[in-house]
Amino acid sequence: MDNEPSMAGLCAQVEQLRQAIKDTDKEWRRLHKAQCVMNVNWRVAYDEFQLHERGDPLHYKLANRLAEVQLLAGLAFRKRTQAEDKLHRLRRRFESAERYLAKLVRGEFKGDQFVEAFENLQTRRITDEMWDEGLQKDIDARFKLTREMNETARIESQWDPEVRKRQFKVPWTREEGDPDPEPWEPSCEAEEPSPKPDVPPAQPKEPPRRPKESPPQSKQSDRPSGGPEPRAKARPKWVWPPKPKKAAAGVLTQAAITRWQSDIELFLSDVARQSFPEPPFEACKNISCQAQDRALDVCDCVIKKLFAGANLKLARNALRPDRLSPSPAATRKEVQDKGRELFLVVNSMYEQSIGKA
Q1: Biased-composition ranges for Acidic residues (predicted)?
Q2: Shortest CA distance to 74 belongs to which of 144, 155, 153, 154?
Q3: What is the SS3 assignment for 38?
Q4: CA distance linking residue 59 with residue 62, whole number of Å
Q5: How many angstroms separate the Cα of 200 from the Cα of each of 193, 204, 205?
Q6: Helix 7-51 with 57-106: angle, nearest 10 deg
Q7: CA gap 139, 89 in Å, rounded
Q8: pLDDT digit string (tens) for 37-64?
C-alpha cells in the first residue's frame, strides 16, 4: 500500500507528487492570468474615478465600483500566492522523495532510517494539507470581513452630516411620574450697594468669648503647677490588610497554563478514555483571529502561549491526526479538528525553532 514504508509505497508517492506538481502549476498559471486581468480592471476603474470630482452624481457610484474591483484584485493576488507557496512545498517534498528512493536503491539506509524517512514524508504531507485548508479559511474570512467593511463605509459616505444630526437628535420629553421642574428664580447674590463716603461701613461684632474652665482640683494635683499639659493619647489606627488581587477576566495566568498542560498530557496518554481538555480562554485583539471560524475557542496567539517552553518535538508527534483516531466515535471528528489546530501551531513553532537553531 501507499502508506506502508516500502519501495512500492515510496514510488507511488513520487508519482503522486509529480502529478500534483503538474496540476498545481496549471492552476498557478490560470490564477496568474486572472490576477493580471483584475489589475487591468482596477486601473481602468481608477482612471474613471479620477475623472469625476466629489459632488458629481457618478462619484459615489465609481468609488463603490473601484472598492469592489480592488477587493477582487486582492483576492486574486492571495489565491495566486497560495498556489505558488503550495507549488514550492510540493517540489521540496518531491525532491526529498526522489532522494530517499535513490538512497533506498543504493542500500544506504541502515536500521530504521528508511521507516523514519517515510514517516517524515507522511507527516509533511499531512502538514501541507492542513496548512492549505487553514490558509483557504483565512483568505475567505478576510475577504468577507473586507467586503462588510466596504459596505459599511459605502452606506456611511452617503449620509449627509446634517441629516444624521437631525435623525439621531431626540428631544427631551417628560414621562409620567417625573417630578415637576423647579421654577426659575433669580440669583440671591445681589450686588451690595457701595457705602457712602461720609458714613464708614459697619464692622461685624465679634461674639463674646467664654472664659476657660479650670480643670478640677483632683486633676490639678496630678501634675506640678506651671508644667505643660499632658498630650491626649493617640487612638490606635487599625490597618486593614490589602485585598488580594483577582486575575482580570479573560487574561491567561501561569497557573491556568500549568493546569492545562497537565490535563493535555493526561489526555494524550489515554485518548480512548480521557476527554479533550479545553484550553483556557483569553481574549485576542487581533482582527484576523476574531474573523476565523475555529473548532477551539482560542486562537493561535493563545496556543503559542500554552506551548511556550514545552518540548515541541514530543508535542508535535503526540498531536498527529493518526494518534487521535482511538478517541470515541461520537467525539472523534471534534477531537481531531481541535487536535489539528493545536498540531498546526506546534508544528510551526517547531519549524521556527529548528530554523533559529
Answers
A1: 177-192
A2: 144
A3: helix
A4: 5
A5: 13, 12, 15
A6: 160
A7: 19
A8: 888 888 888 888 888 776 666 777 787 7
